[in-house]
Structure prediction request, 358 residues.
Amino acid sequence: MRKDKTKIVFLGDTLINEEPLGVQRYALEIIKEIDKLSVPWPIEVLVPNVEECSLVLDNIKVVKYGKYNRTGFVWRQIDYPKYIRRQNALSVDLTLGLCIWGSDIVCLHDCIYENYPKDFVGLKRQLKRYSYLFRAQRNVKRSRLLLTVSNTSKNELVSYYRIPESKVVVINDAWQHMTNVEEDDNILDELNLSEKAFYFTLGSQLPHKNFKWIVQAAMCNPDKLFVVTGSRKITSCSEDYNDCPNIIYSGFLTDGQVKSLMKNSKLFVFPSLYEGFGIPPLEALASETNIAVSNCSCLPEIYGNSAVYFDPLKYEIDMDSIVADSEKVSANEREKILSKYSWRKSAEALLEAIVRIM
Prediction:
C-alpha cells in the first residue's frame, strides 16, 4: 500500500436498509460512532448508485457510485474496487462483503464456513460456502489487518489461516442500539402471551444454532411455554419436533417486537454450539432479562458471570432449575458485562487499528 493513502472508504452496499442484520448491525453501529468522533482523515461509506438509501450520517459522506444498478455481489467485485483504486483509499470491509480483490482491513466475524461444512446442504449452499472460503482466503492474504469480534474467534482465525496473532485485532460487538428500539408490546397480544410466562429464543435453520435443545427442553417441560422467532418449519429437526405443542413460532419479528419478547420473557435462552460473539444474549441483558447460554465456543468469554451456563448436548432439561440459578446472578455482574461492551469503545478501537497502517 502506498504511504499517501489519506482517505478511508467503508464498504456499505448492505447498510442501506432500515433494519440491519447481525453483521450489518456491527458495521453500521461502529460507523455511526465514528461519525461522532473527530477524525483526521476524510471518511466515506460507498454504496451502489440506487435511488433509495436510508443511511444518513452527519460527518461521514455516503457516496453513491457505479455506472449500472448492479446486484450487490457484482457491485462489490467491480465498482467497489474500481472506486478504491481511483481514490487511492484505504478500504474497510466490516460486512463480510469479501471483494475478491481484497480490502486493507477486513472483519471475519467467525469461522462458521470453515468449521461447519455440514451446515451447507444442497448444491447452492455448498457453492456459497466454496465462494466464501475462496474469497476469505484471498482477503486474509491481501489485507493489512484482520478484525474479529472475540478472542475465541481470533484464535480460530490464527490457527485456520496460519497467520501471526499480531495481524488480528479483536473489536467486540455491543448493545447500545437497543436503547433506540421502542418496544412493541402488541406482539404479546398477537401471540396470546402473558408477561414472564414464557421462555424466548431466536430460531434458526442452521444446525450449529442447536434448535434441537429448545425442542427437547419443551418436551421435557410440557407445562412450560417457549417462543421462537421464525418459521414453524425447522429443517434441522424432525416433523415430530416441529409439532411440539408448547412451542410458539412467531414468524418474522421487528426489532421492537424482539425487544418486547426479550423484556417480558421469564428467561432468554441461547443454546448455540458455536458463535463468533453471540450478540442476542447481550441484547437481552440490555433489556433487563436473565439469560441462560450454552457453555460452548466464545460464550463464557463474552458473558462471564452474568449468565447461567448449560451443556447444550445434554437434553434432560429442568427449566425450573435453570430459572432458579439465573435469579441468583447479581445485578452487579450483569452491569459489569454491559459496561464492558460499547459501540463507542469499538469505534475507538477501530480508529486505533487504522492508525497502525495509515
The longest strand covers residues 43-48. The chain has two domains: 8-174+342-357, 178-340. The mean pLDDT is 91. The longest helix spans residues 123-142.
